[in-house]
Amino acid sequence: MSDTPSFSQLGLSESLVHVLSNMGFSTPTPVQTACIPALLKGRDVLGEAQTGTGKTGAFGLPLIDLMDASQRVPQALVLAPTRELANQVAGALTEFARGFDGIDVLPVYGGQPMGEQLRALRKGPQIIVGTPGRVVDHIKRGTLRLDALRVVVLDEADEMLRMGFVEEIEWILEQTPETRQTTLFSATMPAPIRRIAHRHMREPEEIRIGAGNEAGTDIDQSYCLVDHRHKLEALTRLMETEDGLDGAVVFARTKASTVEIADALGQAGIAASALNGDMEQGERERVVSDLRDGRLDVVVATDVAARGIDVPRISHVFNFDAPGDAEVYVHRIGRTGRAGRKGRAILFLEPRKRRMLKDIERLTGKPVREQQVPDRQAVQARRETRFAERVQTLLGNAQNAGHEALVDRLLADSGVSERELATALVALATAGSPLDANASQGTDPLQAAARAPYSERGNNRRDTKPRNERPSRGKDREPEADMVRYYMPVGRNNGVAPGAIVGALANEGGLNGREIGRIGLRDDHSHVDLPASLDEASIRRLGNIHVANRKLELTLQAPRPGQTESQDDTRKSAPRKTTKPRSEKPAASETPKSFSKPAGAKRGPAPANRKRAAYAGARRKPTGKPGAAKGTTTSAKAGTLAIRRKAI
Q1: How far apart are CA 480 and CA 46, in angstroms?
Q2: Closest CA to 590 of 155, 22, 96, 165
Q3: Treating both helix axes as pointing N-terminal to C-terminal, what angle do 231-241 and 255-267 enclose, rounded to 10 degrees?
Q4: Each residue of 31-71: pLDDT tens digit?
Q5: Gap between the Cα atoms of 158 and 74, Å rounded
Q6: Coil, strand, or helix at residue 321?
Q7: What does R_g of the chain's alpha carbons equal in angstroms?
Q8: Strands of 3-150, DSSP E
């Protein structure tokens, strides 16, 4: 007999237990078993749990039971880092509230029409689920009043920290009643999250589920040593040969990469779509829905855009671009291996980044094995097997009888054997996607790279050639062997220096120092020598990189004088300035420029400890550290945070 209690034994109402039974939930997860009783008693909870452990139910189920349906005012506020996660949490809470008349859940986030949100808020929903920026906006407008708020939940607090929402979170908490109940969930507990707990929680009960990736216990993890030039080929081969591949998420570092990878997979016959912050909210929701319903098999996403994806059919996670640290890796692979299913996580790794494996294995508590990228013969064998299976399903089918006369005619007219005719028909049937993976002549580049010694793979941290043998980037000599010269419509007049071009090609394009040859600058254009082994797709990708707010637009021909800019662009050359790196940030509507006190808000007397409100810190000059509110009090009196630990 299992020692795990039932939902009814945790103290949930009969109506809610009945709803859970209808949804197919009979046994709570460990995080739900630990959190639900504490939250029903009104305790603050500080939970450390990974994505996929059931934490939405851990805070959402008691939240529903604590709501008063007769009061049409916001009683609970759930803050989430992204629109996708806010939508997911709101959907789950709506399902939980199905057995209760009069309990409404409203998601609010940037990208939605403001008018629709205002009309919905006027109806008085009891539960608000939103992103920090949009919640701040509504509070300052006076359209979201928190006077009757009883519960605040911070979901994935570490991700909100990473996205720079700490000031907004602190400001929102300052506007809520001091008697509220506060729940904070985070996959990790960095110092800023601890400071929020010290400032805004009352003797919280800390609940920690497992060490490392609890959600990854059923995930088989492996890595492939792949040169960045061959990643796309490696990805398509793995997708063709991986056993049990159903749905997949491919993680890329930049928005542009998600589009490029999705397009390449589509050309290979794989149903794939990009998912990034440049897409409209409705389009992003459609992509996730198509993945869930089987209309898409692969989603290529950035880390931020992938937040909130909870699709049970995801069997594989591919780390196309290596994550920045082990914690991001854990978040990524948490998209698979859910609900008792087995999952696969494959990491593309360059040899110089091997040290990341130790960090990953230390955090997850599981080894990450090396895996070889399938060769052309393995791909061909898998294609032939799939074709043979399709033929087998047609054999004996009554619908085939109508083709017998045509087969007899072909045999009679051609005068060949049945074997020769069958061979010709197979060739005809597979003309669109040849079964022969060896059609590409020459050495398999992936296998050649795998066999090459480490020092020859082009991934060294620094150039090992003697100084006098290294290519001179400022000369106009002919390109070295195996290099091709490309021209770019950016030059000195645009404020470009060689270092900016090198940095863009290395950081955005993924090239390493040994692959970037001579660079020459002119007033209105420049040139760079790149490896001849780069394919057309790689050149197009590099050409889309921006330097000094202009695309590189790599071409083989030098621009003629006066022809470096488009015919309709008559603007003067851009002045010299330092451009900020392009990064994926929350939408502008998500981050207010200032945190002035909302009109009409009743703050009451200042706290006894003279603690300054978080929004006041926004008027000071920022320190440059994202998420840090300069001047805010981070220390607390002894005994402020009396954490009661519960072993799971």
Answers
A1: 60
A2: 165
A3: 50
A4: 899 999 999 999 999 988 766 677 889 999 999 999 999 99
A5: 25
A6: coil
A7: 29
A8: 45-48, 76-79, 105-108, 127-130
Report the 10 Å Cβ neighbour count for 621. Answer: 6
Q: Can 11-210 and 214-376 be said to share one CATH topology?
A: yes
How far is the C-alpha of 83 from the C-alpha of 491, rounded, in Å? 40
**pTM surpassing 0.85?**
no
What value does the mean pLDDT take over residues 498-511?
75
Give the whole-angstrom CA distance, residue 127 versus residue 133: 17
Q: Give me the CATH code for the 11-210 domain, please.
A: 3.40.50.300
Assign 3-class secondary structure to 197-263: HHHHCCCCEEEECCCCCHHHCCEEEEEEECCHHHHHHHHHHHHHHCCCCCEEEEECCCHHHHHHHHH
Tell me the two tokens of residue 9: 């034994």
Burial 317-335 (b: 16+ CB within 10 A, else e): bbbbbbbeebbebbbbbbb
| Pair 300, 275: CB distance under 8 Å | yes
- Is the CATH code 3.40.50.300 the one for domain 214-376? yes
Q: Say whether domain 483-559 belongs to CATH 3.30.70.330.
A: yes
Contacts of 247 (CB under 8 A, 6+ apart): 291, 294, 296, 297, 298, 299, 311, 313, 314, 315, 316
- The pairing of beta strand 343-349 with beta strand 219-225: parallel
Cα 334 from chain centroid (whole Å)? 11
Residue ranges covered by each domain of the chain: 11-210, 214-376, 483-559
Residue pLDDT, tens place only, 338-364: 766 789 999 998 877 777 888 888 777
Of the pLDDT bands very low, low, confident and very high (cuts 50, 70, 90), residue 411 is confident
Confidence bin at 472 (pLDDT 50/70/90) = very low
